[in-house]
Amino acid sequence: xxxxxxxxxxxxxxxxxxxxxxxxxxxxxxxxxxxxxxxxxxxxxxxxxxxxxxxxxxxxxxxxxxxxxxxxxxxxxxxxxxxxxxxxxxxxxxxxxxxxxxxxxxxxx
Amino acid sequence: xxxxxxxxxxxxxxxxxxxxxxxxxxxxxxxxxxxxxxxxxxxxxxxxxxxxxxxxxxxxxxxxxxxxxxxxxxxxxxxxxxxxxxxxxxxxxxxxxxxxxxxxxxxxxxxxxxx
Lengths: 109, 115
Hints:
Mean pLDDT of chain B: 92
Strand content of chain B: over 45%
Structural class of chain A: mainly beta
Radius of gyration of chain B: 13 Å
Structural class of chain B: mainly beta
Helix content of chain B: under 10%
Oligomer: heterodimer
Order of helices and strands of chain B: EEEEEEEEEEE
């Protein structure tokens, strides 16, 4: 079983829609959870990180962690064409960061 | 942008030749990582370092070695390049706080082609 599972998509939604991206993880010891955005031919850039369970909001983005179900989510409100990218979830544990495979998102104008 | 520089940015090399990729940071972060990114596999950890001369293997370390003689530099060497090592390689750095690695910052990547 992979430590982090992520639906690879692709996912296409119209501009202005709410986007929900999700990952599951296997190790209940993980405490730090991150979301990265990666544009084509660029390095991943940190979008948000959360510690333990709960929600964290930053503008149009909300990261949510449910440790009881080992489920992490990223919500994008009022999606824009500039949000079109690959989104990767990541968890921190045992000195390492483990990534999901990424979900490719396209926002259609 | 975090101060991470990868070099070279692009490289084409022949099968069987050794190749060294360099990652340089100006942030003085303790942890440095090398990942490779391939379609369908996402980012996979090759090796990481938790201090000068302190390194450990990741999930896809076969055929790779690393060295860290200074805090700011982390080198990845493909000892004898193979076509299966054609990939995009990313270096990352992170802090370690209370035993956990918090957010990592990535370089721009090195696109390596082995022919």
